[in-house]
């Protein structure tokens, strides 16, 4: 990352605002819901091996909306089981929102929630320090591998926690999305060296292939309206630009050359299509499902 630029994750308040706007302007959660209701049930059907109790870990669970939809599908597939659910999320605000959501939902008494205000790497250290030996039936890592130093090591650790018939689900932006093109072009200027914020499913599949690890993958088509980014001084456009670049106050801190280059790239046919006066960014995601290490 260029030395003059600060990462958006350093300002949690602005990050949460830009993230909420991103959700409003994109079909991100809708494409995840389509996957959860149409494909995930088949993935979850084989877990548990007939057990009456299942262990689940959500890594980077955010405010819990997607977690609870996955847990609902799990309950439909395995209606008689109880669930021990470890929630791993470093943002106190997001964890609070998750707890509020749980308090408003009836019929969750089959789930025991354990709240962990920590990052994935802190949870890994905590797990090792506790010398925990329990095996996990379902682990999900939704849109969070951007924030770890070593995605490969993180995936290996959590895959190693799976029990018999266990499943690890990863969802990230697709290597074929607009994000992939933007990051391949501007990695040096935009990406922080101490985390992996420019990682895509293309990177994850490359290292899984190199190790001979089998997986199933599913494309999740998604798009995002970024038209406001091209109106100079537009408050929402600037928030979206911060989210797209992961740079705090990108419009005012990036060099004029970098800003112009990024805006040109966002309009490029490899990233977006223009339709009815709108610029629609390719926000495609991909889901990868892994089994227990053999």
TrEMBL record:
<dbReference type="GO" id="GO:0032259">
    <property type="term" value="P:methylation"/>
</dbReference>
<keyword id="KW-0489">Methyltransferase</keyword>
<keyword id="KW-0949">S-adenosyl-L-methionine</keyword>
<feature type="binding site">
    <location>
        <position position="283"/>
    </location>
    <ligand>
        <name>substrate</name>
    </ligand>
</feature>
<feature type="binding site">
    <location>
        <position position="28"/>
    </location>
    <ligand>
        <name>substrate</name>
    </ligand>
</feature>
<keyword id="KW-0808">Transferase</keyword>
<dbReference type="GO" id="GO:0008170">
    <property type="term" value="F:N-methyltransferase activity"/>
</dbReference>
<dbReference type="InterPro" id="IPR016673">
    <property type="entry name" value="HHMT-like"/>
</dbReference>
<protein>
    <submittedName>
        <fullName>Histamine N-methyltransferase</fullName>
    </submittedName>
</protein>
<dbReference type="Pfam" id="PF13489">
    <property type="entry name" value="Methyltransf_23"/>
</dbReference>
<dbReference type="InterPro" id="IPR029063">
    <property type="entry name" value="SAM-dependent_MTases_sf"/>
</dbReference>
<comment type="subunit">
    <text>Monomer.</text>
</comment>
